[in-house]
Each structure stands twice: as structure tokens, then as C-alpha cells.
Specification:
The complex is a heterodimer. Chain A is mainly alpha-helical. Chain A contains 14 helices and two strands; from the N terminus they run ααββαααααααααααα. Chain A has a two-stranded antiparallel ribbon. In chain B, strands 1, 2, 3, 4, 5, 6, 7, 8, 9 and 10 form a ten-stranded mixed beta sheet that branches.
Chain lengths: ~300, ~425
């Protein structure tokens, strides 16, 4: 017999980690958003006691998010970029994960290793490599003109939103494929065999068995890449540099990078987190629902 | 004939109406007393809002010099430099030649180390957290803040004879630090227009308002750039409108500059960065707001082997209408080697050291008497077409335009305006 409380003890490191590296920092962001600045150094001075909070900056920021206002427009642009990137990541990533999970056979380990390979190079370096590839005289335009796919090579790096979306896809797709692969691997193959035995074609078996069973995996992988994409600011900076393609992360960067208004940067972070929190709640609800269905 | 003579009653009525009743007289008297009592308070607060910086130190302007307060005495004269240990130089990355720092270490038999920061905000934050630093680079707009926060040690001029010997007279007791109590000047630079003459057809030098090229650059869409700096970007829009109050805190003026800057987006879709020293010589940028030091870097360090430096052009407005700035060195309050720190300040403005650091590495001109545009062109260091990147002592007069510290309220206005520009909407 194990002592009472042994198993919950295993959760302790995770709880401590969550407290120290998420909840406390997140409350610090809130305290900065409702706080003040040092009168000399202009560093943020967090106000920890809610009774002493200054609501001005948060209110100003929330108003900025109302439809038609400045932050709202940047938020809409960011959401469009993230949605397009997510859709492309899923379109490319799901078949890759599906192939590795179901059909790779003995090459599975090799393919997984190849998927991990981009992690060996820093994100920044990979983006800078794309800058060279997409440059006016770069390989991408050379290939496009050589194959006569285009007559005039596009300006990829001059405020082109497609470049930003492609940059996001390239940067985050490995983070989508890996959890998706784990999710597809967990699907019981006997369920697929049962579907085939009952007369379903491979396509129908995929649509009616594999896809629904991988729904939580899709959502989980989507959440993993969506959260950092929303806060990304260096991808648009590197592959575009134009105000026309700036994202919400760029706005946060401006206010946190110095000056007397770090509270606005913190307030922007809070609003973005609230929005992402809604997505997270939906994800958790879906996972909980799937778990309930699996038990019954 | 006078009107009063013809209409005596009207005259009487006017006289009556101009007489003051007792009640009105008391009111006026009361208001006057109240105004007199309130005037110093109003004036003090008006000044505090407009002219005072952190710690109650006045905001320096070229025509309003400031003597910075000392919170401790400088070190005594004639002390021996400290021996051993590590001497730390706190600076932007790539803003001082490592060889220059190493030579200093060899000369005084200490190990040297360069610790870097990305921005002056980070520098101030880290200095305030007592980062290990003996000397630090400091920009003029942060000097008052650093002094008020007691992040710097005062300088004993006896250890810095090169200041009087080598540096431009205007900067021996500059307006931002009268008597050079805390700083020695490091680099000087102007803000102007950099362009590729093989790509840009217009003769920018002879335009009535050369800044207007940015607002007429449809042909170069995607190849135009603006400096990624709130003060510089909005400052360019001010200069375009021939508004030379570059330290304004008037919301209406800042809004107008923002509107002009935003107007650039549909015209030329500008890139906002500070990599023009690389993109102009590479040819990935044709027209860019640029710092003169970066223009020299472009020629000295970034010109491709098969590139032609004569295609790079630089224009800066005439004296009094151009933005000019300078960076400085100061002694960190945390130094354990104050004598050595003084000697470093003297070393960095040594004629040979300053020239080597400038020509072999930074591309940013030190304000040395010996360095002139003619001399650099004659030596073949810079092409004739870039002669204007080299500043002259008279460019830093009391009529010069310098981006100086603002009040917190003013900074917030500029920052918010810049964030609106960056949002691209």
C-alpha cells in the first residue's frame, strides 16, 4: 500500500513550476499594467495591491481595442496572419504527421529526426536565411522566373504580407507536427481496421475515424503554435520591416522597449492573453469532452 | 472736430461706464492678489512640466546650457591607477574597436572586457541595478536621468587633459554638461538622407526641400526606409514641414508630424529599421533616412567588393536646420577603478586612438580638431561625394538642432504617436 498523498506529490514540481514561471510572472504583468513608473529611471513599478491600482492605462488600451480604433486594426491584421498561418501549417503539417505515423515504416525514426533538425538552428538564423532566399536576386525568384511561373519576380521582402505568413508557417510548423504526430500515434489501429471491415473506404475511414480521433491533437497542436504566433514581432520585423505588416507583438515591443508607458505594453499583453485565454478554455472544454466520451 | 464735442451725453456715459464700482475694484484687487500669490506656483509647475527632467535637473538645450549637480566630490588629483583585475567597458555592441580597448588594457596592465547593451533604456536599467561597469557610453537625452539617479561619478578634469588639447572647443564645456563634470564626447553625427544615385533619379541636393523626396518616392516603393527611432522618424516629418522645434511637446505639432509620417505608407511603404549602413551599399534600399556615421560605415565596412562608393550620396540640411547629436563616455558609479576610468576617458579622446577607432571600426566621427572633411577626402578614406557626412565644429553651435531629453509627458506623446505610425493603420 502506498502512503496517502504520494501520487499528488508527483504533481508538486509541476505546480511549483506553474506558480513560479507562469502565475507569478503573469500577475507581475497585471501589476505593471495597473502600476506606475519610476520617476527617475522610468522603469515599470508594479503595484501588487489591487486596491492601489491605476486603471488609466488599461482603460485606454481597452478603448484602443474597440472596433475601428488603432489596436483593433492591428489585432485584426494579426488575427488574419495567424489564422492563415495556422491553416497552412495544418494543411502541410497534418499530411506529414499522418504519413509518418501510418506509412513511414522503418524510416519513421529518420523522418522524426529530420523534423527535429530545424530546432538545431536558431529561429532568428532561419528567418535571416529566408531573407537571403527571398531577396530580389535570391534563389526563390530565380526559380520562379526560370520556370516561367512569373514574369516579374515578386517583392517578397518589401512589406509583403504573404512573406510574413510564410515566415510564420516556416518558423512554427515543426511545433505543430510533433504533437500532432504523437496524437495520431495514439489512435488505436484496431478502430481503423474495424471501419474497413465494416466496408468503409480508406477515405471514409479517415474522415469518420482518424480525423475525429485526432481532433484533440489538432486543437492542442494549434494552441501550441497559435499562442506564440500572436505575440511574435521579430518575424514581421525581419521579413518585412514595414508598418503595413506589423503585428500586435510589435506594439507591445514599442512600449516595453523603453519610455514612460510600459503599463500600456503590459495592458496590451493582458488583453491579448484574455483573448488567447478564451481559445484555451475552448481547447480544455474539447479535451474534457473527448475524455468523457472515451470513458463512456 | 472731436465726436465728444458734438455728443456731450455720449461722452458722459462713456466716462461713467469706464468708472469702476467699489465692488468691481475689490474683485479686481482680489484677483490681482490671488494671481500674485499663485504666479510663482504656476510658473514653477509650468517649468516643471516643460523644462525639468528627472530629479529636478533642468532639461538641457543648445541655447539653454545646464550645469549638472555633483552628489559627491571627484577623486583627488595625482592618484596612481589601480592595478590588476578586469576593467569593464559598458557600451552598445560594435560601437568601439575591441583592439582599442585591448590596447588600453595592455598599457595599464589590466584585463579588459566589453559588456554590451542593445539600447540606452537597457543600459540605464542595468546601471541602476548596479551592473559591473567602469565606464559607460551615454547619450545626451539620458545624461540628466543618469546623474539624477546617481549612476555616474563626477570627473576630475586633471586626469583628462586631452579634452582641452584635442576636442572641439564647443564640446570642452558643452551645453548638456557645462564644465564637463561627468562626460567626455565620443562621437558626433548628423541625420540626413542617404541614397543610391544609380537608382534614384532626382537630384536631391538641388530640390527646394530635399526631405520632400520621401513624400514623392512612389517610384521607389519598397526600397525606402525610415530610421526605427521615434524621435528621428517623427523629427524627419517635422523638418519636412520646416518645423525646427524638434523637442516640441505640443500635441498638435506631434499629431501633424504623425499624419505626415503615416502619409508615407501608401506612397512608398517605408521599411522602418536601422540597418541602412548595410542595405544602402548592398542595394536593397535606395533611399533612407540615415545617420552620417552609418553612411561612413557603409563605405568603410559594408560596400561590396564590386560596389562603387561614388553611388552613395548623403545630404544633410544646412547648419541650424540639421539634426546633430553626440554620444559620450562617463564613469560608472559602480567602478572600483575610478582612476583607471578617468584614464580611459582621456585615452578614448587621444588623437590617434580616436582616429583609429573611427576609421578602422565604428565609422562614427569623433569631435577631434585634427579630423576634417578635406583631410579625409585627401587621404582617400571617404569619397568626395560623401564629404558632407563629416561635421564641422560650427555645426554644434547654440543654434543647432539636437534631440534632447523630454519630460515624461512629452516622451509619452512621442512614443504614442510613433506606435500609431508603426501600427500602419
Amino acid at each position: 500500500m502506498y502512503p496517502r498523498g504520494l501520487w499528488p506529490l508527483f504533481a508538486l514540481p509541476g505546480i511549483v513550476w506553474l506558480l513560479l514561471l507562469f502565475l507569478v510572472p503573469f500577475y507581475a504583468v497585471i501589476a505593471v499594467a495597473f502600476g506606475t513608473v519610476d520617476p527617475i529611471f522610468q522603469n515599470p513599478v508594479p503595484v501588487w495591491n489591487p486596491l492601489d491600482w491605476n486603471y488609466d492605462y488599461v482603460l485606454e488600451t481597452v478603448i484602443g481595442f474597440l472596433p475601428g480604433n488603432d489596436y483593433w486594426r492591428v489585432f485584426v491584421r494579426t488575427t488574419k496572419y495567424v489564422a492563415a498561418s495556422l491553416a497552412l501549417c495544418l494543411l502541410i503539417g497534418y499530411p506529414v504527421a499522418y504519413y509518418i505515423s501510418r506509412h513511414a515504416g522503418r524510416t519513421k525514426s529518420l523522418l522524426v529526426a529530420l523534423l527535429v533538425l530545424p530546432f538545431w538552428v536558431s529561429y532568428l538564423m532561419r528567418m535571416l536565411a529566408w531573407v537571403n532566399l527571398l531577396a530580389p536576386g535570391g534563389y526563390v525568384n530565380d526559380i520562379l522566373t526560370w520556370t516561367h511561373l512569373v514574369t516579374t519576380p515578386p517583392d517578397w521582402l518589401n512589406g509583403n504580407p504573404y512573406s510574413v505568413v510564410l515566415g510564420l508557417v516556416y518558423g512554427y510548423i515543426p511545433y505543430l507536427i510533433m504533437p500532432l504526430l504523437a496524437s495520431l500515434d495514439r489512435i488505436d489501429k484496431s478502430l481503423l481496421e474495424a471501419a474497413r471491415d465494416l466496408g468503409a473506404s480508406p477515405f471514409r475511414a479517415f474522415v469518420h475515424v482518424t480525423l475525429p480521433l485526432s481532433k484533440t491533437g489538432i486543437l492542442g497542436a494549434s494552441v501550441i503554435i497559435t499562442l506564440p504566433m500572436f505575440g511574435d514581432y521579430y518575424t514581421p520585423n525581419i521579413v518585412s520591416g514595414s508598418p503595413q505588416t506589423s503585428m500586435l507583438g510589435n506594439q507591445i515591443d514599442i512600449f516595453f522597449h523603453g519610455g514612460p508607458q510600459p503599463a500600456i505594453g503590459a495592458a496590451l499583453t493582458m488583453v491579448l492573453s484574455t483573448f488567447l485565454g478564451v481559445l484555451m478554455v475552448y481547447y480544455m472544454y474539447t479535451v474534457a469532452k473527448a475524455s468523457r466520451e472515451a470513458r463512456t | 472736430m472731436r465726436d465728444d464735442d458734438v455728443h456731450p451725453n455720449r461722452n458722459l456715459n462713456r466716462r461713467r461706464s469706464s468708472r469702476i464700482s467699489r465692488r468691481r475694484a475689490l474683485k479686481i484687487l482680489g484677483s490681482g492678489v490671488a494671481a500674485a500669490v499663485a504666479a510663482p506656483w504656476v510658473l514653477r509647475h509650468a517649468l516643471a512640466d516643460q523644462l525639468m527632467g528627472p530629479g529636478g535637473i533642468p532639461l538641457a538645450r543648445p541655447n539653454a546650457p545646464v550645469t549638472l549637480p555633483r552628489f559627491e566630490d571627484p577623486i583627488k588629483s595625482g592618484l596612481e591607477p589601480e592595478k590588476g583585475g578586469t576593467f569593464t567597458v559598458f557600451n552598445y555592441s560594435d560601437y568601439i574597436d575591441k583592439k582599442v580597448v585591448d590596447e588600453f588594457g595592455k598599457k595599464y596592465k589590466v584585463k579588459t572586457q566589453i559588456t554590451t547593451f542593445d539600447s540606452m533604456d537597457i543600459a540605464i536599467t542595468r546601471l541602476a541595478k548596479h551592473v559591473k561597469a567602469d565606464v559607460t557610453n551615454i547619450s545626451l537625452d539620458r545624461l540628466g536621468q543618469a546623474v539624477a539617479g546617481k549612476l555616474l561619478k563626477p570627473v576630475n578634469p586633471d586626469y583628462v587633459p586631452n579634452l582641452k588639447k584635442n576636442v572641439w572647443p564647443q564640446l570642452q564645456s558643452p551645453f548638456y554638461d557645462v564644465e564637463s563634470r561627468y562626460t567626455v564626447p565620443y562621437t558626433i553625427y548628423s541625420t540626413g538622407i542617404g541614397w543610391r544615385s544609380d537608382k534614384v533619379k532626382e537630384d536631391i541636393y538641388h530640390l527646394e526641400n530635399p526631405w520632400s523626396i520621401f513624400w514623392a518616392s512612389q517610384a521607389y516603393k519598397g526600397y525606402v526606409g525610415v530610421l526605427d527611432d521615434s524621435r528621428e522618424a517623427l523629427g524627419m516629418a517635422l523638418l519636412y514641414q520646416k518645423n525646427y522645434d524638434v523637442n516640441t511637446e505640443d500635441p498638435a505639432v506631434i499629431d501633424k508630424a504623425l499624419a505626415d509620417l503615416k502619409a508615407l505608407i501608401p506612397i512608398c511603404n517605408p521599411k522602418v529599421n536601422i540597418t541602412e549602413y548595410q542595405t544602402l551599399p548592398e542595394g536593397t534600399s535606395y533611399l533612407h533616412e540615415v545617420w552620417s556615421g552609418d553612411m561612413l560605415s557603409a563605405v568603410i565596412s559594408y560596400m561590396p567588393k564590386d560596389g562603387d562608393p561614388s553611388t552613395l550620396q548623403y545630404w544633410t540640411p544646412p547648419r541650424g536646420k540639421a539634426l546633430v547629436q553626440n554620444d559620450c563616455w562617463a564613469i560608472s558609479a559602480t567602478t572600483k577603478k575610478p582612476v583607471l576610468a578617468h584614464l580611459f576617458l582621456n585615452y578614448i579622446i587621444d588623437e590617434q586612438v580616436a582616429t583609429d577607432n573611427f576609421l578602422n571600426f565604428t565609422g562614427y566621427q569623433p569631435p577631434q580638431i585634427s579630423i576634417t572633411a578635406d583631410g579625409l577626402v585627401a587621404k582617400g578614406v571617404i569619397p568626395k561625394n560623401l564629404e558632407s557626412v563629416v561635421l564641422r565644429p560650427e555645426d554644434l553651435g547654440s543654434d543647432s538642432l539636437q534631440l534632447m531629453a523630454l519630460t515624461a509627458k512629452g516622451q509619452a506623446l512621442w512614443q504614442s504617436a510613433y506606435s500609431k505610425f508603426i501600427s500602419g493603420v
